[in-house]
Amino acid sequence: MQHEIERKFLVASDAWRAGADSGRRLRQAYLAETGRAAIRVRVVDGSSAVLTVKSAAAGASREEYEYPIPLADADALIELSSGGVLDKTRFRVPHAGRTWEVDVYSGDNEGLVVAEVEIEDAAAKVEPPPWVGREVTDDRRYYAASLAKRPYRLWSDSDRRRSA
Amino acid sequence: MQHEIERKFLVASDAWRAGADSGRRLRQAYLAETGRAAIRVRVVDGSSAVLTVKSAAAGASREEYEYPIPLADADALIELSSGGVLDKTRFRVPHAGRTWEVDVYSGDNEGLVVAEVEIEDAAAKVEPPPWVGREVTDDRRYYAASLAKRPYRLWSDSDRRRSA
Fold first, then answer.
1. Model ipTM?
2. Chain A neighbours among B 7-36 (CB < 8 Å)?
3. What is the pTM of this model?
């Protein structure tokens, strides 16, 4: 079990690309999401896969249980998922002693770019890079499980303006 | 992936006990159940655990994906489950060239005893042992995920009479 505490921000410019690695392609879907847990299947770079159970978010903190599974199972499990499939490329970007992850969505969430940073405890000080915008840690619309159900493509213009 | 085809029967007498092994204690709960999949955590004899995804039942046939997980994870995942925890002892009983599994429930499902047999295809001939009663393969009330939500203890007297 991992105890995961993350903060999430919108991305305001492309300046992060200068410091980024070459990225990993993530394809993922949710088998289920209850008030208590989300169960996710994720394929990484089309070559490995994991099944993950995350406890329901209580603020920025979640418990996470992750198990490697065969790639063929992952493809079949994605067929059993509820909601859509998320496609994104995740880049790692070092900043101020932390590693930020920038998710560039494609497919139904094309146009959405978010940055996450994992922290050691909820009180930890984070120095946001100059290329991030508004914090969306507590905004459920940006939870990956939410994006699988209601992708960015379907958001209203006013929702998107609030995003900027 | 396993392709699981099972038939399930109520148990009409204790005669199965003569041919049974010593049984395994199963403690299980459902993280989620959607129209497409059920995600189950199971602890066997308090000493090993598996996380299982089953496709939604289409008659007697289901796909099943099973992964071993650490026992400590299983205990934590059971805390994240929806519905109750099922406790049962599963006995193996050979009959007419097949292995039958007899589940004797305890806890909230005390009083319920069902027998299952796995078959190679839906058309396979099954010779039910003399100690089984009515077939309940297609009766959703007897699905384990249903029993976790609406245990036998809560069934009405007329439901139970129909069970006999």
1. 0.85
2. 31-36
3. 0.88
Evaluate whether A33 touches B32 at the Cβ level (below 8 Å): yes
Q: Nearest to residue B39, comparing CAs of B26, B30, B27?
A: B30
Helix (H, G, I), strand (E, B) or coil at B55: strand
- Burial (CB < 10 A; 0-12, 13-18, 19+), residue A130, is exposed
Q: Is the dihedral of CA B131, B135, B141, B142 positive or negative?
A: positive
8 Å CB contact of A77 and B65: yes
* Cβ separation A77–B53 shorter than 8 A: yes
Given a cut of 70, the residues of chain A with pLDDT beneath it are 1, 57-61, 161-164
* Alpha-carbon dihedral A148, A153, A157, A158, rounded to 10 degrees: 10
Any idea which residues of A carry the catalytic annotation?
30
User: How many residues are recorded in chain B?
Assistant: 164
Q: Which stretches does DSSP call E strand in B45-154? A: 48-55, 61-69, 82-95, 98-106, 113-118, 132-135
